[in-house]
Design brief:
- The protein is α/β, with parallel strands linked by helices.
- Among the domains are: about 1-65; about 95-125 and about 155-195, 2-Layer Sandwich (60s Ribosomal Protein L30, Chain: A).
- Helices cover about 45% and strands about 20% of the residues.
- The protein has seven helices and nine strands, in the order αβαβαβαββββαβαβα.
- The strands form three sheets. Strands 3-9-4-8 form a four-stranded mixed beta sheet, sandwiched between helices.
- Strand 5 and strand 6 (about 135) form a beta hairpin.
- The radius of gyration is 21 Å and the shape is elongated.
- It starts with a helix and ends with a helix.
- The relative contact order is 0.13.
């Protein structure tokens, strides 16, 4: 019986990790008896980066609707705490983070951003080079990189392609967290670790 439980935990963890990656979910909540969710947490792939939240409650006998209503306040509470922690890190200039619209946008285009943190509703008019694609908020009609002409685009329209091109994760914060982030122009980020530093850290 213990062996069957162990196999079930491993399989569930693998399926959850795949599902989370495909759907680009923010976090995974494991709800159940501690003796089941602890080994399940340990069975997630080592490279899995989303937060895993444990809720030690046996809710197996309630309906899906009851389960949703029961968990909604706990999930909302976790989201508020998580967003506050994100903003505290980037606005407080923790090691490996930056804040401010122009600096973050420039680093994003250079491929140096790992995770972008945005205040919900953030937008701005940008000027994009028609030749090399460089974007910034400067009013100059010519590109500072190649000297070509520029056109007006919005940050909101340009962001999806930038994030896809540079494989950047995006966290959007709202309410109090968004107001705090707006004090540093509504945007911050975690920088990518240099490969040499990452390699030395593994040793």
């Amino acid at each position: 019986m213990e062996g069957q439980y162990a196999r079930l935990c491993r399989e569930t963890a693998q399926q959850a990790a795949i599902f989370c990656t495909k759907k680009d979910l923010t976090a995974v909540f494991l709800v159940g008896l501690d003796r089941l969710i602890r080994p399940m947490e340990a069975a997630f792939p080592r490279g899995f980066r989303q937060p895993i939240v444990l809720i030690d409650q046996d809710l197996a006998r309630i309906t899906l609707l009851e389960l949703q209503k029961h968990l909604e306040p706990q999930i909302a509470s976790w989201e508020r705490t998580h967003e506050a922690e994100l903003v505290t890190a980037v606005a407080g200039e923790e090691r490996g983070t930056i804040a401010g619209f122009d600096e973050t946008l420039a680093r994003l285009q250079k491929g140096k951003i790992r995770t972008l943190v945005l205040a919900r509703g953030l937008d701005a008019d940008l000027h994009e080079c028609v030749q090399c694609g460089w974007m910034d908020r400067s009013a100059s009609p010519t590109c500072s990189v190649c000297g070509s002409k520029r056109r007006t685009v919005t940050f909101r329209d340009a962001l999806p392609e930038l994030a896809r091109r540079h494989q950047v994760e995006i966290d959007v914060v709202s309410d109090d967290a968004a107001e705090r982030l707006k004090k540093v122009e509504g945007m911050g980020a975690w920088l990518r670790q240099p490969k040499s530093a990452s390699a030395s850290g593994k040793r």
